[in-house]
């Protein structure tokens, strides 16, 4: 990895920008003149058009950006990391993190393939990791005030894909954040999603709403014509209507409508659960299909 001073990191900008237009996504391939990789690899950053992303600096092993979500006045920082695969060079990754940490005090999310583990429990198969390597990684995160955000799913993010007993699995990919970012997104969750086209899983970071951020207007409640096919629908309406007959005429109508709306909404959540599950299943199938197509396209582009 090229060694950059703080000033050099701040001034690095892409000399070449290749753009692939994908529905709802901007795909930017970042390369530096001092880090040509040709078609063998590289780093890519994808974002929705509704999100504002400002490039701060980059190298062969990181992309550092400022992020502002649609409808939000809050800026935060995201750094995508690819740690040195050569153990002898990995200390350069920790020094890079330290320099990046010194550049900004913003809420910070740092995620990617660190090529290192934080505990012996994060490796299965093969020889144990030397403890000094684990200590160095822990010290680097502590120095940068970054904490591991955990995960949902498989405990490992990489596999050598060998058959037993030669299988090796490790948790090399993770998301880390400082306390400011965790306070900004207190309900954020990290999910490991298997990818058939890669020996790594995808680390998916789900964000909850942050202050001053509204992703879209709340969906208005509507009566669904399909509900009329259920005999239970008429019963729910009748019971709701009778619950407030003791009110005055004006209050009664308003109250009856409110009761009816609330009870229909509550009833529909369970009455059509099987239908919703089928819809979700096919949505997931379609999402996985287009995600794999996108990854194949990115692989060819990079």
CATH level 3 topology of the largest domain: Deoxyribonuclease I, Chain A
Say how many strands there are: 14
How big a fraction of the residues is strand?
15-25%
The largest sheet is:
6 strands, mixed
Helix proportion range: 25-40%
CATH architecture label of the largest domain: 4-Layer Sandwich
Q: What is the number of helical segments per DSSP (H or I, 4+ residues)?
A: 7
**What would you call the structural class?**
alpha+beta
From the N-terminal CA to the C-terminal CA, the straight-line distance is 18 Å
Count of individual domains: 2
Global geometry: elongated
The CATH superfamily of the largest domain appears as Endonuclease/exonuclease/phosphatase
CATH class of the largest domain: Alpha Beta
Mean pLDDT: 76
Strand order of the largest sheet: 4-5-6-7-12-9
Protein name: Endonuclease/exonuclease/phosphatase domain-containing protein
Organism: Sesamum latifolium
Pfam families: Exo_endo_phos (PF03372)
GO molecular function: catalytic activity
